[in-house]
Structure formats: structure tokens, C-alpha cells
């Protein structure tokens, strides 16, 4: 799918977008998002500067307020050995949320592709996420073997994509902030 027309509407999330992005994520996921293990990696953490993106709504005329139809964020995480010594750094992708009225039109794909490109251009070693394999396999994510999260998770849904420029071994250990 050619996502270029969408990518022109994607920008780095600015301070002025923050509330709208939060509202969108809450609308898509509901209050249950805060009990997920993934949230343990986000609480008391801050997204990586410049690696959160929003998709702007296409508006016609002046009547409609400009809103957001999609949001994705990347967070700094580390992989630790059993002595809690850091072994390496990764980025945790999530949440990725597309407004229910605008799903299945390629917005999610465009946001993920932009986020991956930007992260890898910055030298991020790899991107980890918890998501539906059938969706994320399309972006080169594979099951993350040998990594554990700080809470219960369906490990079939823990996926990773390493930067092509990363020549090291896949990281194994405990993932935390
Ligand atoms: C998942 C989500 C981000 C995808 O974004 P989107 O803009 O709707 O999807 P896209 O248009 O990029 O991709 C659509 C394709 O993905 C597929 N797809 C969408 N959601 C999927 C899912 N959960 N599992 C498998 N495939 C999925 C569609 O069937 C479609 O397939 P096709 O290209 O072969 O026709 C979006 O639907 C969303 O926010 N959903 C609710 C929240 C959520 O589930 N977030 C992700 C956690 S895994």
C-alpha cells in the first residue's frame, strides 16, 4: 500500500497535541489500558523525545476543528541481566491507536512505518511491542524470544524488530524502564 499521502499528514507529536493524543488513546483503549503490563513500562517514564507521532485529520472548509485520527509513541526501555545490570537499550512502541471511525484505511501502517524509520535513523537498536502478530509481522516484527516483561503478558504477542544496522546478538533478559 502506498502510504505516502498519509505520511504527509503525520507530524511529531508537539506539546499542543498531547491532550488530543491522550484523549484519542483513551477513546480507543478505554480505562483498561492502565492495568496492562505494557503500562508498567510507561508509568514514570517519558516518551523518547521526537519519536511520538500524530496523524492529523483531513479537514474540508473551516467548520470542523482539526483533530487527530492516530497516535503512536515510543518509550525508552532497557534489558537487564539477573543482577539488574543493563545489557542494552530498546524502544517500546505503544500505544498505537487509530480513531475507530478511521480504521483500516492505512493510517496505522503509515504511523508505524514513520515511527520505525525515525527510530532507526536515530540509531535505536530495536523496537519492542505487545501486539497482534498478524498485524505487526507485516512490518518485520518477529516474536521476541528470551525477553521478559515486568508482569503478566501473552508472550506470543511480544514482538521485536531490530534495526538493520544492529549487528549484535538479539538481547535476552528482563525488560524494564
Ligand atoms: C490496530 C490499529 C492500530 C491498526 O490501524 P489501522 O489504521 O486501523 O490499520 P491499517 O489500515 O494500517 O491496516 C489495516 C490492515 O490491518 C489489518 N488489521 C487491523 N487490525 C488488526 C488486528 N488487530 N489484527 C490483525 N490484523 C489487523 C486489517 O485487516 C487490514 O488488513 P489488510 O491490509 O490486509 O486489508 C487500529 O485498528 C487500532 O487502533 N485498533 C484498536 C487499538 C489496537 O488494537 N491497537 C493495537 C494493539 S495490537
Salient structural properties:
Aminopeptidase, binds coenzyme A, 177 residues, alpha+beta, single chain
Topology:
Elements: H1 4-7, E1 10-12, H2 18-29, H3 37-42, E2 52-56, E3 68-80, E4 86-98, H4 107-121, E5 126-130, H5 133-136, E6 142-143, E7 147-148, E8 158-162, E9 173-176
Parallel strand pairs: 4-5, 7-9
Antiparallel strand pairs: 1-2, 2-3, 3-4, 3-9, 5-8, 6-8
Q: What would your notes on this structure say?
A:
There is one protein chain. With 177 residues, the protein is of the alpha+beta class. The chain is built from 5 helices and 9 strands, in the order H-E-H-H-E-E-E-H-E-H-E-E-E-E. It has helices spanning 4-7, 18-29, 37-42, 107-121, 133-136, and strands spanning 10-12, 52-56, 68-80, 86-98, 126-130, 142-143, 147-148, 158-162, 173-176. A hairpin with a 5-residue loop joins strand 3 (68-80) and strand 4. It is globular. The structure holds coenzyme A. Residues 28, 96-98, 103-109, 131-132, 134-135 line the site of coenzyme A (COA).
Estimate the mean pLDDT confidence: 92
CATH architecture: 3-Layer(aba) Sandwich
Can you give the helix content as a percent range?
A: 10-25%
Structural class: alpha+beta
Instruction: Supply the CATH class.
Output: Alpha Beta
Number of domains: 1
Kindly state the number of beta strands. Answer: 9
Low-confidence stretches: none
Short précis:
This protein has one domain (4-176): Gcn5-related N-acetyltransferase (GNAT) (Aminopeptidase), CATH 3.40.630.30.
